[in-house]
Amino acid sequence: MVRRSRLIGGERYEGAREWEYNHLGVRTAAWQDPRRGGWYFEWIGEHVSKPCRDLIHTDGSVGTDINGSSPYLPLAPSVPHLVESHALADSVAAWRPWPVGGPTAEAVVLLDGLVDVPEASWGSSRWRLSDGVAVMDEDTWNPQDPRRRTLVWSRDEAGHRQVREALDASHRRAGPVARPRVS
């Protein structure tokens, strides 16, 4: 089970999804990958209604085919990377989420003490942590609007204060702009 928590438009959204890291045994479908070489195989992953399959490649990467028939799209370099990223998402789900994007994303560069978490990060997803703050940058899946989304969580008063101070400093740098409402 992976819990997730985000603050969007001033409202907290929480959810939990069940994951099963398991292949389908003898019923596993497999396809050759003409673009990258090797093969990719279907496996059981996130238990949600979706038009795509969970796939694993012979190079060890984890991916999808988006609509059930498109080419293999790698999402993570390995199952352990995906598991670690989901474990971090679950561990910060009870922390305070901050507004997605805009001023919060700009303020992240002002946060001190964040350490990269390489076992949960890769080219399209990067986790950074401190004792009281967690930051995850991730690419969106929309090819018409490719961008990075930054998610920030804090715990305890020291973490909340650190994020608030970074937001205030970011606002002072940018000049007078409308501030997002955070509770």
What does this molecule look like?
- The protein is of the alpha+beta class.
- It has helices at 79-91, 102-107, 156-174, and strands spanning 2-8, 11-17, 19-23, 30-32, 39-46, 54-57, 62-64, 73-76, 96-97, 115-116, 125-129, 133-139, 148-154.
- Strands 3, 4, 5, 6, 7 and 8 form a six-stranded antiparallel beta sheet that branches. Strands 9-13-12-11-10 form a five-stranded antiparallel beta sheet.
- The protein starts with a strand and ends in a 9-residue tail after the last helix.
- The model has no long low-confidence stretch (mean pLDDT 81).
Give the biggest beta sheet. Answer: 6 strands, antiparallel
Structural class: alpha+beta
Radius of gyration computed on alpha carbons: 18 Å
> Between the first and last Cα atoms, what is the distance in angstroms?
28 Å
Q: Please work out how many helical segments DSSP would assign.
A: 3
Overall pLDDT confidence = 81
Oligomer: single chain
Strand segment count: 13
Strand content: 25-35%
Q: Report the helical percentage.
A: 10-25%
Output the helix-strand order: EEEEEEEEHEHEEEEH
Characterize the overall form: elongated
Low-pLDDT runs of 5+ residues are none
